[in-house]
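pasting for the record
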Amino acid sequence: MSEPCHLLAIGAHPDDVELTCGGTLVKAARQGYRTAIVDMTGGETGTHGSQSVRASEADAAASVLGATIRLNAGLPDAGLHNTDETRRVVVELIRRIRPLVVVLPYPIGRHPDHRIASELCRDASYLAGLANYPAAGEAHRPEKILYTLAYREDAVKPAFVVDISDEFETKLEAIRCYGSQFDGRMAAGEIFPAGGDVYENVRMHCARYGSLIRVAYGEPYLTHETVRIDDVVAMGVRSM
């Protein structure tokens, strides 16, 4: 890439970032930031569709999201592991994209690839900044790691929620690019059946997160470090 990206979202499979942080990617692109997506695998062991179909769907979705670049790490679906070899693959991608902020899956997930992708990519984000780490590219370490919390059923309180009210329909349009995965489906990935199709379930979940910050739709995130606030008088979300 000729210029570093501001925001990189990494998912284990094509469609993961659309489901979890697609609205945030759209918002960032509209704010003038360069955004990137990396899919760790091609989703080739999925029950529906094929690797080639999912690759075409991913390209279409990236265009809808306004992503500057979308890459695939080429690691095996349902066989993702955190090893020296796989860390090197991700380190080289991070050094190529040079993001300021990286969005990762939550460290716990129903699919093993989600959990492992989170650990692997966090490790690689650190190692990418070591000048003598044996991988191609100039050393670069992202400044911030964010974890997506979408669709979690455990009691994890978001560190913050991004207002995607204006971006939600575009997020949904990107998700609809994956017809092989979602058309006619009641559940997908971490999204359990809730009385409607996947698209309506996404709307319901985003509405729930939005309600936490008193807006129509939102996407939730976790950070391990404390979030800084410079102006307590201007803080959003009423307490009473």
